[in-house]
Amino acid sequence: MANLSQLKRRTRADYPYILEYRTRWTDNDMYHHMNNSIYNFLYDSVINTYLIEHCGLNPQSSPQYGMVVHSHNDYFSSISFPSRAELALRVNRIGNSSVTYEIALFEHGKEAVKSVGEFVQVFVDRDTARPNPKGMDPKMRQGLERILVSDRQSKL
C-alpha cells in the first residue's frame, strides 16, 4: 500500500469502480460522524457488489468465495449523515488465490478523500474453506484484472 501522503492525494480518477452509498442516521456515532465499524461494512459491500456484478460471484452457490484475511484503514476526515458517500475501488495486487483491494471513501461533491482502506481476500473452496491449489477461478481473476492498477500507476 502507498504511504500516507500518497493516499491523502488520491482522487476518484485513481479508481476504476465507484459505488454510491447514502449514509444513514444509524451510521453516526455519538460524536456525529460515521462510526469506524461502518467503514469496514462499506468496504466489504463495495467489494462484494463488484464481485457479484463483474466477476460472477453468487454468494449462495459459487464454488469459491473470498475470505478477508487482512484489513486496514487510514482516516483523514469525517463524514456523517445525511451525506452521500462514494466508495471507490481498485485492485493493487492479484496472487494465485489472493487479491489486495484498495478502497477510498469520498463525500459526494467534495474532492478530498475521507479515508483509504485495504482489504486482502483469499479465495477458498466452499467445501473445504482452503485455497484451491489451482488458484482463483478464471472468471473471478478476469473480472478483478479489469480494475487492477499497475505498480507504476499506484506509485503516482
Automatic annotation (TrEMBL):
Record key words, sorted: Hydrolase
SUPFAM superfamilies recorded: Thioesterase/thiol ester dehydrase-isomerase
GO MF terms held by the record: fatty acyl-CoA hydrolase activity
One family name in Pfam for this protein: 4HBT_2
InterPro entries reported in the protein's UniProt record: 4-hydroxybenzoyl-CoA_TE (IPR050563), HotDog_dom_sf (IPR029069)
CDD domains: 4HBT (cd00586)
Similarity annotation: Belongs to the 4-hydroxybenzoyl-CoA thioesterase family.
PANTHER family associated with the record: 4-HYDROXYBENZOYL-COA THIOESTERASE FAMILY MEMBER, NOVEL THIOESTERASE SUPERFAMILY DOMAIN AND SAPOSIN A-TYPE DOMAIN CONTAINING PROTEIN (0610012H03RIK)
Protein name (Swiss-Prot/TrEMBL): Thioesterase domain-containing protein
